[in-house]
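User: Last request for today: this protein with EPZ, please.
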Amino acid sequence: MEQIVVSGGRHLHGKVPISGSKNGTLPLLAAALLVEGETVIENVPDIHDVRTMLEMLEALGVRTEFTAPGVLRIDATDLRSTEAPYHLVRKMRGSFYVAGPLLARTGHAKVPLPGGCVIGARPVDFHIQGFKALGAEVTEKGGIMKARAPRLRGARIYLDPRLRSVGATINIMLAATLADGTTTIESASREPEVVACAEFLRECGANLSGVGSSTLVIRGVERLHGCRFRSIPDRMEAGTFMYATAVAGGEVVLENVRPDHLTSVIETLQAAGVTIGYGDDWIRVQAEGRPEAVDIMTAPYPGFPTDLQPNHGVAASIARGTSIIEETIFDARFNYTDELARMGANIKVVGRAAIVKGVPRLSGAPVEATDIRAGAALVLAGLAAEGRTEINGAEFIDRGYERFVEKLRSLGGEILRCETRGAPCLV
Ligand code: EPZ
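Assistant: Here's the final one, the structure of the complex with EPZ:
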């Protein structure tokens, strides 16, 4: 197990470049399976989840190559297999995205069901209902989904309006791109990552309208051609650096960012007393002293993102006053609160809400990351805390954050990564 060690109490200062989006890039890598030819994707982050998806593509017979840092060439002309290996789906749920493209392009897909996950139940029933609505025969046996359809047929598909599944919207959209006729997805997710995927498909010759709205219309085409596309900046990484500055104090400018993707986060931090300025592709965050308490409720885009909820939990734990945090997307996304409590936070979880009474200061402690976002939040808690915090399970953070420790160090954070085998890790 790898560890990140933080000595808290340092303000952050400087500029930090934001990487390409994890959740924006993974669908593009799956979408490249639809293309008979070469696609080039720019701004691809070097993170473990991207590497896992590339392993998946290679296992299916796709050729992938980085031609420059962040520039990925994918050639899916010769698909060798339509079976996704279990060991890769198990590692990362996002790899279920290959199901829609495989089915659309070859008429077959055999993909293991991803199962539950530490942030809560994460079924793929909406994806499967969508494939069935498009005319596929689908069986689920022995933990494996098998889908078959010589040619998918366009259909009207209603997703659950309360959940607005990002993954189901993307998988169904990918499948429908090569279907016969028109598909309409009602209650489609409007997340920037969905919009980016739709724009990539358009660049490759797909016919889509209603992109960015909750009614997505896909008119099937015979085939897609190669294209070049730049992945969007990672709004979760950006939000994490904004919260890092809010809890540690200081002044940080985020570069290569899309402020328009972060409206709910900007407004929440402003309500907490953080000063924020921004232009087309930068955000400046200035913070001093304890944040004010702000209640939040997570919601599909443009609401407050569930992926940044743990960061807000850290800010709330040192805020002036009491905050209520409601989690509406994933039922086990408060796992991190037990770890924060070990650092002195006063948090009570009642069902889908956490009541957080701010304390003047957290104190460093050994803690355990249980998922990507919980891990990042614990690092933020370490930056804000007095003394030394050891975050175990650093490998979770590597799944989704590119050079996280290095970027925080460049801002003046006293933070180090170490292998725990052998010598103690000193900061
Ligand atoms: C995506 O997961 C992201 N992952 C998650 O980011 C993110 O937290 C989530 O969207 C919500 O924004 C990727 O993009 C790879 P959903 P996804 O389908 O698509 C229920 C991170 O840390 N649901 O929008 O799996 C589901 O249980 C990760 O980067 C069904 O019931 O999320 C949840 O309650 C974690 N049946 C809700 O819908 C289904 O078939 C929304 O999930 C699908 C989903």
